[in-house]
């Protein structure tokens, strides 16, 4: 009897392309091949879809597309995946497992397309995905529900035309130091701290290269912690918080994915009260924003008083060998391989 097909979808035109490759490689190593026929489908930076060899090392090194004779163009139609080497034998995937991050992967566009194609997939639907990708909208929704978030300002390109007014607005509303990042984005791309007004315009210009809106928040002296959630309709798991131990001045892209000095601590060394507070807030945010199957909720714990603030909600969190989500699930008693199997069945 043929094994059900699971499509592992990765790559794409996002700035987080490399992170997607690493997530896909780790997921490919952990998926249960005795239960599923795993079909890796890579999306090039230019949008072409290709079936590729199930070789996690080649995917991780971005060499998956080098073996052209092993890559087969793939087309999709309602409920089917069609490989160009067998157009008369369409595949009917049991589920699509997205390993995409950032724009086009977790902002609702991919999810809307998969819905239109009647292809079941792991993760939140288009509405929740788009909402959580937009940090300002997320914070507005959370604050309206009484959940704790840091204050913020949105900056558009037109605001940059009057630097003096912009400086006064930031200084009067938030005061320096502040943190600047794209409103929609991830992996700390285009983000940086601004200690005083001298670097504000440069930081905003950099953030606006990656999105049409930038977000400015107070820079608080805080520990960054993360809580992982899993929900398959039968069980909801809310992990204990994990912590990032980072030597850099902030958790930037290189610190996340390559710095040897960065390490994850599971569980985070927090009091039982603070840990439980985070778990309750994470579940409340997950439900409030309409998330599905999985998410990672990021927090700040202010060092001066232990106050907890919700930072972001990630509907397709990183699944690399260094990522916290797999480690937090394992700490919750759900090994990553079992987690992936149950997520796939939840999508079905």
Strand content: 15-25%
CATH fold assignment of the largest domain? D-amino Acid Aminotransferase, Chain A, domain 1
Shape: globular
Number of strands: 16
Task: Give the name of the CATH superfamily of the largest domain.
Answer: ATP-grasp fold, B domain
Any idea what the radius of gyration is? Answer: 20 Å
Total helices: the number is 11
How would you spell out the order of helices and strands?
EHEEHEEEHHHEHEEHEEEEHEHEEHH
Report the top-level CATH class of the largest domain.
Alpha Beta
Mean pLDDT: 92
In short:
By secondary structure, this protein is α+β, with helices and mostly antiparallel strands. Helix content is 31%, strand content 24%.
Can you describe this structure?
- This protein is of the alpha+beta class and 348 residues long.
- The protein folds into three domains: 5-121, Rossmann fold, CATH 3.40.50; 132-149 and 221-347, ATP-grasp fold, B domain (D-amino Acid Aminotransferase, Chain A, domain 1, 2-Layer Sandwich); 153-218, Dna Ligase, domain 1, CATH 3.30.1490.
- It is built from eleven helices and 16 strands.
- The strands form three sheets. It has a six-stranded mixed β-sheet.
- The longest helix is centred in the last third of the chain and has 17 residues, at 272-288.
- The protein is globular.
- The mean pLDDT is 92.
């Amino acid at each position: 009897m043929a094994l059900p097909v699971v499509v592992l979808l990765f790559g794409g035109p996002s700035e987080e392309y490399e992170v997607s490759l690493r997530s896909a490689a780790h997921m490919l190593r952990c998926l249960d091949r005795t239960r599923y026929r795993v079909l890796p489908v890579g999306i090039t930076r230019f949008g072409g879809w290709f079936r590729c060899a199930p070789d996690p090392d080649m995917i991780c090194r971005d060499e998956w597309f080098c073996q052209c004779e092993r890559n087969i163009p793939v087309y999709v139609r309602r409920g089917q995946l069609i490989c160009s080497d067998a157009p008369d034998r369409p595949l009917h995937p049991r589920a699509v497992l997205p390993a995409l991050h950032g724009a086009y992967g977790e902002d609702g566009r991919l999810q809307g397309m998969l819905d239109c194609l009647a292809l079941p997939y792991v993760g939140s639907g288009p509405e929740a995905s788009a909402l959580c990708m937009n940090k300002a909208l997320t914070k507005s929704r959370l604050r309206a529900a009484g959940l704790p978030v840091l204050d913020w300002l949105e900056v558009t390109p037109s605001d940059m035309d009057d630097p003096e007014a912009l400086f006064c607005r930031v200084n009067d509303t938030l005061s320096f130091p502040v943190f600047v990042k794209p409103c929609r984005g991830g992996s700390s791309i285009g983000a940086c701290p601004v200690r005083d007004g001298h670097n504000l315009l440069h930081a905003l210009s950099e953030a606006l290269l990656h999105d049409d809106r930038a977000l400015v928040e107070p820079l608080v002296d805080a520990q960054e912690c993360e809580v992982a959630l899993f929900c398959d309709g039968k069980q909801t798991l809310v992990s204990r918080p994990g912590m990032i131990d980072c030597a850099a001045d902030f958790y930037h892209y290189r610190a996340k994915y390559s710095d040897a000095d960065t390490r994850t601590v599971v569980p985070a060394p927090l009091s039982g009260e603070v840990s439980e507070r985070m778990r309750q807030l994470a579940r409340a945010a997950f439900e409030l924003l309409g998330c599905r199957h999985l998410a990672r909720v990021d927090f700040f714990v202010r060092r001066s008083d232990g106050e907890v603030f919700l930072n972001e909600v990630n509907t397709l969190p990183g699944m690399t060998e260094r990522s916290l989500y797999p480690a937090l699930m394992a700490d919750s008693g759900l090994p990553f391989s079992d987690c992936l199997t149950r997520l796939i069945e939840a999508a079905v």
